[in-house]
Amino acid sequence: MIGSKTSGRFRRILVGYDGSQESEKAFQVGLSIANTLDSRLEILAVIQPGEPAASVSPHDGLERSRKHYELALRKIVEAANEHGGNVEASIVIGHPADEIIKRAEQSRSDLVIVGHRGTSQFKNLNMGSVSEHVLAHAPCPVLVTR
Questions:
Q1: Which of 12, 15, 26, 85 could form a cystine bridge with 115, CB 3.0-4.6 A?
Q2: What is the pTM of this model?
Q3: Among residues 82, 86, 46, 85, which one has the least CA distance to residue 66?
């Protein structure tokens, strides 16, 4: 049926999330689209392993990051689902752009949404490089929010 919520092209929406204001905007846009089209929304947080500090083991740093994202994502998912959303979240370890693309392929996402710029612990990393890489290599349309 034309115009039906279930006939929408974007049935599976993936949002890359890093806790930045830009990724918060991406999430809000994704949630709005998902609610309008009655779509499933997945939030993906990617922990990028960094160079270990002298006093912290790499495992401790990853574990601290995982706990941080788990708490943040739990709050977001609960709030969205209380308002009728169909939202899931997951956390993976790797390079953000590669992991977002891989998840989009695995989950057969119809749309990927990322913020224009995010956060990184590496000061010399071009913050827009993740969105640019996802835009160039994703297997589906990509919406970049500002």
A1: 26
A2: 0.83
A3: 46
